[in-house]
Write a structure and sequence with these properties.
Bound molecules: alanine
Helix content: over 70%
Structural class: mainly alpha
Order of helices and strands: HHHHHHHHHHHHHHHHHEEHHH
Radius of gyration: 21 Å
Number of strands: 2
Distance between the termini: 62 Å
């Protein structure tokens, strides 16, 4: 049983394990596809990462650049990845190699690096998901009280206890493994399709409550009034990195999602809706979190921003315990949906490449991810004195993965798609004969992916390099 869009005949393909047979399953309803794709895109990137990246980059001007980057670079590249998946109906590595008849070393290197990057991101994401599990458990047990110091102490205890963090990571990885090894249709979309709409309603409700705080106006001004003097040379790179991370571009998850689209589904519309939903969620989350941050006198920043501020706000509401449990439950569902989207990519690539069974591939990947997670999980305890270029270890891992490696991989994958696929097949996948405007949009899309996106990514990387070399005194 499930919501109306989750039918018993969810997939048209009757194969038990579509990937093993080379056949692909399809979404039975379009709405189901959107919820699953949005569920994979929306997650900790929107609620946990976006607010602290905005704070680091000074607010409104950064938000404006982020939104422009999402529409001009993120959306066109998201469409490319969906196109590749829909055309090849395979996972990233196999789909990209098929484009070049398996002959390009460049394609093999780029796509394998993308899957490797996804594995590292999945592992580091598991650490933050573990923090969510911790707060969910604290709220459920009623061991969190309505005071700033209680919330801060709780967060500090978590930060200082590396073993606890590793246990939380294990719990999260175990849940992901069980869901993914049970196969995609039973795992991924069912969870997402239940919880994401509830989360959206809860966030809007919390935002309405936050609108009564004195700080709401200042938060709105901070987020929406662009003060360009606050930007640094690295801000464009931070905006792009976050766009790719939050839309799950460059990880291959959108290639996997594209492979499940039906023949009649219009890819640009799908990409546009996912981008808009993801952007709205980020803006709502940031407005909520900054209203709360600006209301309290204490200083919160960096990766702890969400966890140090929101619990207190929730507790101060009538029925605070209930809202705390509901919020962290929904946040965990979002984190799980995104984690499963990432894990699915790694597992399906191993299945396609090595012909491993789903279960073997899942447990293999989970074991590696657990080992990789040690570094970020212990960054605030065992490695707390390690500082690299002014970053603690967790922030450094985050910056290297998202601001540097991800844009490079995205550029590589985008190049494979636009060069490897003939213009005729791109047109066939992009244009919907029933929509007159889609033929002219095709030219704009090509211009964005062939010229604008690569130039902006290259410029962002160059500016970040200048920032690193001159501001941090490398030279
Ligand atoms: N796109 C996922 C998120 O934003 C990874 O959390």
């Amino acid at each position: 049983m499930g919501p109306p869009w989750y039918s018993n005949t969810y997939f048209c393909d009757e194969e038990q394990e579509p990937r093993m047979s080379g056949k692909r399953a399809y979404w039975s309803t379009r709405f189901g596809f959107y919820l699953a794709a949005i569920g994979s895109a929306c997650g900790l990137g929107n609620l946990w990462r976006f607010p602290f990246v905005v704070e680091e980059n000074g607010g409104g001007a950064f938000v404006l650049i982020y939104l422009l980057a999402a529409l001009t670079v993120g959306l066109p590249l998201l469409i490319s990845e969906l196109m590749l998946g829909k055309r090849a109906r395979k996972s990233l590595i196999a789909a990209a190699l098929e484009l070049v008849n398996g002959k390009s070393k460049y394609s093999a290197i780029i796509t394998r690096s993308a899957v490797l990057l996804t594995l590292v991101v999945f592992s580091y994401y598991a650490v933050i998901s573990g923090w969510v599990v911790y707060f969910l458990a604290q709220f459920t047990a009623g061991s969190i009280s309505q005071s700033d110091s209680s919330v801060n102490t709780m967060f500090s205890v978590l930060m200082e206890n590396g073993l606890l963090q590793l246990m939380l990571v294990s719990a999260h990885l175990l849940i992901c493994a069980v869901v993914v090894s049970k196969s995609i249709q039973e795992g991924l979309e069912k969870w997402v399709s239940y919880i994401m709409p509830v989360f959206a309603v809860l966030l809007i409700f919390l935002l309405v409550r936050a609108a009564s705080l004195n700080s709401f106006g200042s938060a709105a001004r901070f987020l929406f009034y662009p003060d360009f003097s606050k930007l640094t040379m690295a801000s464009l790179g931070h905006a792009l990195g976050h766009v790719f991370f939050t839309l799950s571009i460059g990880f291959g998850s959108m290639v996997t999602f594209g492979s499940y689209l039906k023949e009649a589904d219009h890819i640009p519309t799908a990409g546009f809706r996912v981008t808009v939903a993801d952007g709205l969620l980020s803006l709502v989350s940031a407005l909520l979190i900054f209203s709360v941050v600006m209301q309290s006198a204490s200083n919160h920043q960096d990766t702890g921003l969400l966890f140090e501020t929101l619990p207190m706000f929730l507790l101060q509401m009538p029925g605070g315990w209930f809202f705390g449990v509901a919020f962290f439950l929904c946040l965990y569902a979002a984190a799980l949906g995104a984690s499963i989207g990432l894990l699915e990519v790694i597992v399906s690539n191993f299945m396609d490449q090595k012909k491993w069974s789903r279960s073997y591939a899942t447990w293999f990947v989970i074991s590696i991810a657990f080992l990789v997670s040690f570094l970020p999980a212990l960054s605030s305890s065992v490695f707390k004195n390690v500082q690299i270029a002014g970053y603690d270890l967790l922030s450094f891992v985050d910056a290297i993965l998202i601001n540097w490696l991800l844009p490079i991989i995205v550029l590589g994958v985008g190049t494979i798609i636009v060069k490897g696929m003939s213009i005729e097949s791109q047109k066939g996948l992009f244009v919907d004969v029933n929509r007159i405007e889609s033929a002219s949009l095709f030219g704009h899309w090509r211009y964005m992916v062939v010229i604008v996106a690569p130039l902006i990514i290259a410029l962002a990387l160059l500016l970040q390099l200048f920032d690193l070399v001159f501001k941090n005194g490398v030279l």
